[in-house]
């Protein structure tokens, strides 16, 4: 099978279609992580699942905190920046603010870090340890302006919650 940039299986042009996609992704992810607690394996499959399902992405992946830096984790897309200081860029700001950030236009976000010049909009969701402490972020990039909305943030947060339950 030949994959293009993002071989999507879903149309998400209506809220109902988007909800159906996230319903399906939650059930697929639950199956993928079932009985497995390895963070690298589960976050790699997570990235692949999301990247191949959601239309209009050019990057999807994790950064995990080591001290005061986020370090690149499993992802799908072009090679990316390896280290991002806490508080820097959209990813580092998400760690500091402790909540998901939707960026409709990356050029309008002060301090945005451009790993891929084609990225125009972004969604970053925090990942937490069982004790609630932030351990990293899941970052989605799109070449389309205004690609992500609150439904996407809610949908990805629900997927991240499934991943978080595998952390022991
Ligand atoms: N744009 C991000 C950097 C990570 S890349 O997009 C993969 C940021 O501003 O934090």
From TrEMBL:
The keyword Ligase does not apply. Its EC number is 1.8.4.14. The keyword Thylakoid does not apply. It holds the Pfam family GAF. Residues 59-164 form the GAF domain. GO terms for cellular component: cytosol. Keywords: Oxidoreductase. GO terms for molecular function: L-methionine-(R)-S-oxide reductase activity. It is an enzyme of class 1 (oxidoreductase). Coiled coil: none annotated. InterPro entries: FRMsr_CS, GAF, GAF-like_dom_sf, Phosphatase_reg/MetRdx. It comes from the Bacteria. PANTHER family: FREE METHIONINE-R-SULFOXIDE REDUCTASE (PTHR21021:SF15), GAF/PUTATIVE CYTOSKELETAL PROTEIN (PTHR21021). Belongs to the free Met sulfoxide reductase family. This is Free methionine-R-sulfoxide reductase. It comes from Duganella phyllosphaerae.
